[in-house]
Design brief:
Length: 233
């Protein structure tokens, strides 16, 4: 149809569709409403001249912006170095999104002994408190809401090849993880008092990413409990 501009709705994130002529645009919402609606939000200024040429300009209108940042660590990474990397990343985000209040969700991934320290000790809480103190206040604050530690991929650590109870456990878990049709209904492990509440929904309604995370967490915990010394990190 010979329509110059289609103004579309229904998605929080802005995007343009490819059409034969004119433009079809989802402008997105003016403000991200929860942490899953990340990045800039705003409106679109549409200008169509006498010849039908279309110019679409993005206008940021959000006053609070949700971001998700991931930092990868290596076996040689120290706590001091990680703190420095987080500070540099936070400072860069403040400059990149100048004038907008930020809510940042951090994820730490990778491998090495520091990952175990982040998962068990107070280091993760101390790093989060430091980020909040240094960047969470002022005229355009960058508030660090969470600092999560991603479970390492024990399946790739070589432990699955062991002739041991841990190896048997990890191989059985890997077979389940590889079978997308395998049920991961955790309700049978919940006490009756918990059924019908939010925790029941959390035990069943999983996205593909959440499902993989559950398997990695189960592999890490089982590997540590069954492995004794030299546990996978």
């Amino acid at each position: 149809r010979e329509i110059d501009y289609w103004a579309l709705g229904g998605f929080h994130a802005a995007r343009e569709l490819s059409v034969a002529s004119g433009a079809a645009v989802y402008p997105g919402t003016h403000q991200g409403r929860n942490p899953s609606q990340r990045g800039p939000h705003g409106a679109r200024l549409v200008e169509i001249d006498a010849d039908g040429a279309i110019r679409v300009t993005s206008l940021a209108t959000d006053v609070v912006r949700f971001l998700a940042e991931r930092v990868e660590i290596e076996p040689s990474t120290t706590a001091a170095h990680l703190e420095s990397v987080l500070d540099q990343r936070a400072r860069s985000l403040v400059q990149e999104h100048a004038g907008v209040e930020l809510v940042i969700h951090w994820a730490i991934g990778g491998e090495g002994p520091l990952l175990g320290e982040l998962r068990r000790g107070r280091l993760a809480a101390d790093l989060l408190a430091g980020l909040r103190e240094r960047f969470g206040f002022g005229s355009a604050p960058a508030w660090s809401a969470t600092l999560d530690v991603e479970p390492p991929d024990v399946f790739a650590s070589g432990c699955t090849a062991e002739d041991s109870l841990r190896g048997d456990y990890l191989r059985a878990l890997e077979r389940m993880r590889s079978d997308a049709s395998a049920s991961l209904d955790l309700r049978r492990w919940l006490p009756a008092s918990r059924l019908g509440r939010w925790i029941e929904r959390a035990a069943t309604a999983m996205s593909a990413d959440e499902r993989q995370r559950v398997f990695r967490e189960a592999a890490l915990l089982g590997g540590e409990l069954l492995g004794g010394e030299g546990n996978p990190r």
